[in-house]
Amino acid sequence: MPIVTIQVTREGSKPGNDSVTADEKAKLIEGVSQLLLDVLNKPLDATFVVIQEVEKENWGWGGLPVDAYRKQRALKPD
Asked: Which positions, given as ranges, span the membrane (predicted)?
């Protein structure tokens, strides 16, 4: 019985969205479940997927809050 947890920042994938949409969540659940079936032969009805949305201010990266990290990264030349 696999249990998969997906954590994402609470922000939209498109302008006007402020979180992951119900349709996007459904596609994540379907895709992860299918992957476990294809790779590990785990039945769909035995796979649990939990999606957790985390406020951006609660997500850090590179020693900084995610927004500050993204700004810093955008300023760096490739």
From this structure: none
Nearest in space to 67 (alpha carbons), one of 23, 10, 22: 10
25: domain CATH number? 3.30.429.10
Torsion sign over Cα 28, 30, 31, 32: positive
Residues involved in catalysis: 2
The answer to whether the Cα torsion of 71, 17, 13, 10 is positive or negative is: positive
Domain that holds residue 59: 3-75
User: Residue length, the chain?
Assistant: 78
Express each pLDDT in 36-61 by its tens digit.
999 999 999 999 999 999 999 999 99
At 12 the pLDDT is 85
CA distance 50 to 47: 10
Total domains in the fold of the chain: 1
